[in-house]
Amino acid sequence: MVEVGQQATNRRRSIWEVGITALRLGLTSFGGPVAHLGYFYEEYVKRKKWIDDKTYADLVALCQFLPGPASSQVGIGIGFMRAGVWGALAAWLGFTLPSALALSLVAIWLQRASWDGGGWMHGLLLAAVAVVAQAVWEMARKFAAGRLEATLAVAAAAAVLLAPGAWSQVAVIVIAGVIGAAGLQKAGERPAAGVPPSTRRFTGLALLSLFATLLIVLPLARAWSHSPLLALADSFYRAGALVFGGGHVVLPLLEAEVVPQGWVAADQFLAGYSAAQAVPGPLFTFAAYIGMASFGWKGALVATMAIFLPSFLLVLGAFPFWHWLRHHPRFQAALAGINAAVVGILLAALYDPIWMKAVKGPADLAFVLGAFLLLSIWKWPAWAVVLVSFAGGWLRAWLG
């Protein structure tokens, strides 16, 4: 009995330690997903020594293969390996809470601010152009360098521009995966030390089945109930389940879901997206901003939980099957096709609504080019460029 009690105490301490460590990272991790992974490596591998280098590399690879926010998924996986399901929840909550609260407060402030004469607002819109343009450029170099990949990216951009909407984007992703599996040759990767299975195959299958079931059931429940919060949960769950390629790709999926519904205006949406660049933590907490702007605190809570729920189900469900997936050539090829398509989807979003809404003349174009230069050549962090754009827009309006 004493030994069992000691084990329970140790587990509670581990959960608490995971939560506090993740909270510290959530307060200080600026710079986007790649920077987050660097912070995680320094904290979890080098300082805490909770996992070794090879296991960390394997976990990062797993999360990059899955849809959703890779850095948050890595944190969830480390929390799970350290302290079980409650550890995964503590890791997610600590890393997510600071930016979710900050963006919820930004939503409240923007609702009370003046939208008509705010030069700072236009500065935020122009910052969004530069940030997304850099994301398109970097992703194209990585995921659309070959002939077929580039063709898929251009075709995807044309398709979603000609047939806008969330479901057309889903169709483009599925078709690109099929084309990639048929036409792209990708060798399977050599397994490293390996992510510890931690869950049985039956449990993994159950979690993955729940992930797929919710994709089908939530839209049906939404149509049947006409509940605004259920509609919000459906939209954000689908966004979290279908975003390949990082946090920036959530922009077009969410824009197609929330702006036509009238939950937020296009200006509000893009301003919030820019604000999300200026806070630490995962970009997916943009969901908290939209939820707060649409339905208050209940909306912020529902949207944030819904967009991250697929990450929990996928990461914990995929652990037992990762080694098979990692060296399966067809899976690798399908993923290459999907990654190329999301470059095109993000390119389409760069044009409409971002460019169309923000760039009104030569001065705006010069502003965007300057911000892009700071991001791509001078390597300024996105949050710094957003703050400069905010101040520059305000100063420009003040000077008339």
Automatic annotation (TrEMBL):
Q: Which residues cross the membrane?
A: 20-41, 85-108, 120-140, 152-182, 202-224, 236-254, 274-293, 300-325, 331-351
Q: What is the native source organism of this protein?
A: Geobacillus genomosp. 3
Q: How does it sit in the membrane?
A: Multi-pass membrane protein
Q: Which residues form the signal peptide?
A: none
What protein am I looking at?
ChrA protein
The answer to whether the entry has keyword Transmembrane is yes
Primary localization class, coarse: membrane
Q: Which UniProt keywords apply?
A: Cell membrane, Membrane, Transmembrane, Transmembrane helix
Q: Does the keyword Phosphoprotein apply?
A: no
Concerning InterPro entries, the annotation shows: Chr_Tranpt_l_chain, Chromate_transpt
Which Pfam families has this protein been placed in? Chromate_transp
Localization recorded for this chain is: Cell membrane
Family listed? Belongs to the chromate ion transporter (CHR) (TC 2.A.51) family.
What does UniProt give as GO cellular component?
plasma membrane
Q: What would be an example GO MF term here? A: chromate transmembrane transporter activity
